[in-house]
Design goal:
The complex is a heterodimer of chains A (454) and B (132).
Chain A (H helix, E strand, L loop, with lengths): L5 E2 L10 H11 L12 H21 L6 E4 L2 H15 L6 E5 L4 H30 L8 H7 L6 H7 L7 E5 L9 H7 L4 E5 L13 H11 L2 E5 L18 E5 L10 E5 L27 H39 L3 E3 L10 E6 L4 H7 L3 E2 L1 E2 L12 H5 L4 H5 L1 E5 L6 H20 L2 H7 L13
Chain B lengths: L4 H8 L14 E8 L4 E9 L5 E9 L2 H14 L4 H5 L3 H8 L6 H28 L1
Antiparallel strand pairs in B: 1-2, 2-3
The chains are: A alpha/beta (454), B alpha+beta (132).
GO molecular function (chain B): iron ion binding; iron-sulfur cluster binding
Organism (chain B): Archangium violaceum Cb vi76
Protein name (chain B): Iron-sulfur cluster assembly scaffold protein IscU
Chain lengths: 454, 132
């Protein structure tokens, strides 16, 4: 029997595998100890459980257990990797290269570092202008006086500006139409001040898998650290920090059938990568992340990682078959439908489709028995459609019409059959109500119309 | 985000979806919004020579609230005079459907669509009168 609603949003989060919950239960009950308690069996038991989980997670990515720092999740791991490297290597340089389609945890961290640098430079300008004018300078006059005194060619200011600011300069690389990076553009963006490249394994919206091994090789040749937000791809496509020359990798548990609120940052030991902590305290996790460990969640994370490692090969074949069934079932029965992102380099469970002339949120409302996501602006408060789709050159109207399906471990063929039929029915119904579909069918070029933007 | 029962009712059972003959001199067509913004509404009104709205049809590309807003105004304008229809404001629509702030633009679009359709009808009538 088909059970409704159907969950097909496995890029947002995944349900916990029952085997994971089972492994966690003792640590939520009798084995409650603090892993940092060194003097009694409660602590020893907790510590042993954490170390076992550390090995399980390390095995999944080809790392050693000593290279993993447990965090609260991938957002923290991304913050720690980027801010930690920028602070630690500030004397070496301050340039970061990333992608326009990265997760917000990476992009917003980079934007903050840019702001920090700009604020520091403004302070330096104020100091220099005070020297030059012999009087204190207000921020209101900063722009005007900077031009008047031509600070950009002032040797003293220029020397000051070369000193570490605590922030960073950031290059946000464009992606190609299929969502993939152009390695030549990456290489061209590298400078002698570049300390970090941060590029994801797989995209959370369109499932595009990046050429991580090639990026790692390039970074290694140039002596630049490589951070990979591996959240979406881990356990779905092969990922090995040794083979791929990854220096730092963000992982989270809840995208691979483990509990929420726990993740890890892989930090390479050979050659050694250093990061400054962003949370200070008791010196847990070799000083890189203070805070009492969430033992039960870490145990679940470890179990989830072990299951992912053992079952990935079979599971990815099954997911790919279901995904292709879904894609063909929809595309054979509906016209004016496009897939967003690369078909060749794609997560097996991901399908991101634009249904032209139908708005994404309306479509999600029509298929309320199926949980999916949309790139439509209407699903967010910002009123801007998906920045990932826009970066891939998808037109705004098609970005508004996109639906993301994320198939996972617990989806069945019966569910896929149900979703195909539902999608076809509802898209047809909404197109019957769509003035754009009617106009397109009449052969009217929608681009020739002067729309009243609002 | 949760929708109000009225939005869901209009979305699931939209009133007056369809197309009127654009060439009919008594039909005014309003097409407002933009595909790039994610909402386009087309409202068509059939207006008698006495200025009574006899029929109304819509088609909308947009979210559930946009579809509900257009469906609602087709119900409201039927039987009204042109002058009465012109007094329908987006606030009335937003209140009736209990739209949250982020969806107010849907009700604005519905008001704009009524005005655009009536304006189109008036233009048609003027050009007819000029010819006559």
């Amino acid at each position: 029997m088909l059970k409704l609603p159907i969950y097909m949003d496995n890029h947002a989060t995944t349900p916990m595998d029952p085997r994971v919950l089972e492994a966690m239960m003792p640590y939520l009950r009798e084995d409650f100890g603090n892993a940092a308690s060194r003097n009694h069996p409660f602590g020893w038991k907790a510590e042993a459980a954490v170390e076992q989980a550390r090995k399980q997670v390390a095995a999944l990515i080809g790392a050693s257990d000593k290279e993993l720092v447990f965090t609260s999740g991938a957002t923290e791991s991304d913050n720690l990797a980027i801010k930690g490297v920028v602070e630690f290597y500030k004397d070496k340089g301050d340039h970061i290269i990333t992608l326009k389609t990265e997760h917000k945890a990476v992009l917003d961290t980079c934007k903050r570092l840019e702001r920090v640098r700009q604020e520091r430079l403004d302070e330096l300008k104020l100091m220099r202008l005070a020297q030059l004018t012999g009087a204190p300078v207000s921020r209101d006059n900063l722009a005007e006086l900077s031009i008047k005194h031509d600070l950009d060619s002032d040797p003293v200011y220029r020397q000051w500006a070369e000193m570490p600011t605590g922030g960073a300069r950031v290059t946000y690389l464009e992606v190609e139409k299929d969502g993939r990076i152009d390695l030549k553009k990456l290489e061209a963006a590298m400078t002698d001040k570049t300390i970090l490249v941060s590029i994801m394994l797989a995209n959370n919206e369109i499932g595009t898998v990046q050429p991580v091994a090639e990026i790692g090789k390039l970074c290694r040749q140039r002596g630049i650290l490589f951070h990979c937000d591996a959240v979406q791809g881990i356990g779905k496509v092969p990922f090995n920090v040794e083979e791929m020359n990854v220096d730092l990798a963000s992982i989270t548990s809840h995208k691979m059938y483990g509990p929420k609120g726990v993740g890890a940052l892989y930090v390479r030991r050979k050659p050694r990568v250093r990061i400054a902590p962003i949370i200070d305290g008791g010196g847990h996790e070799r000083g890189m992340r203070s805070g009492t460990l969430n033992v039960a969640a870490i145990v679940g994370f470890g179990k989830a990682a072990e299951l992912a490692r053992l079952e990935m090969a079979d599971e990815s074949v099954r997911l790919l078959r279901l995904r292709e069934k879904l894609r063909k079932g929809i595309m054979d029965q509906l016209d004016m439908v496009t897939v967003n992102g690369s078909m060749e380099h794609r997560l097996p469970g991901n399908l991101n489709i634009s249904f032209a002339y139908v708005e994404g949120e309306a479509l999600m409302m029509a298929i309320k028995d199926v949980a999916v996501s949309s790139g439509s602006a209407c699903t967010s408060a910002s009123l801007e459609p998906s920045y990932v789709l826009r970066a891939c050159g998808v037109e705004e109207e098609l970005a508004h019409s996109s639906i993301r399906f994320g198939l996972g471990r617990f989806n069945t063929e019966e569910e896929v059959d149900f979703v195909i039929k539902l999608m076809v029915d509802k898209v047809n119904r909404l197109r019957e109500m769509s003035p754009l579909y009617e106009m397109a069918k009449e052969g009217i070029d929608l681009k020739s119309i002067e729309w009243t933007a609002h | 985000m949760a929708y109000s029962d009225k939005v869901i009712d209009h979305y699931e059972n939209p009133r007056n979806v369809g197309t009127l003959d654009k060439a009919d001199p008594n039909v005014g067509t309003g097409l407002v919004g933009a595909p790039a913004c994610g909402d386009v509404m087309r409202l068509q009104l059939k207006i008698s020579d006495e200025g009574i709205i006899e029929d109304a049809k819509f088609k909308t590309f947009g979210c559930g609230s946009a579809i509900a807003s257009s469906s609602l105004v087709t119900e409201w304008v039927k039987g009204k005079t042109v002058d009465q229809a012109m007094t329908i404001s987006n606030k009335d629509v937003a209140r009736e459907l209990a739209l949250p702030p982020v969806k107010i633009h849907c009700s604005v679009l519905a008001e704009d669509a009524i005005k655009a359709a009536i304006e189109d009808f008036k233009k048609k009538r003027e050009s007819r009168q000029q010819k006559a």
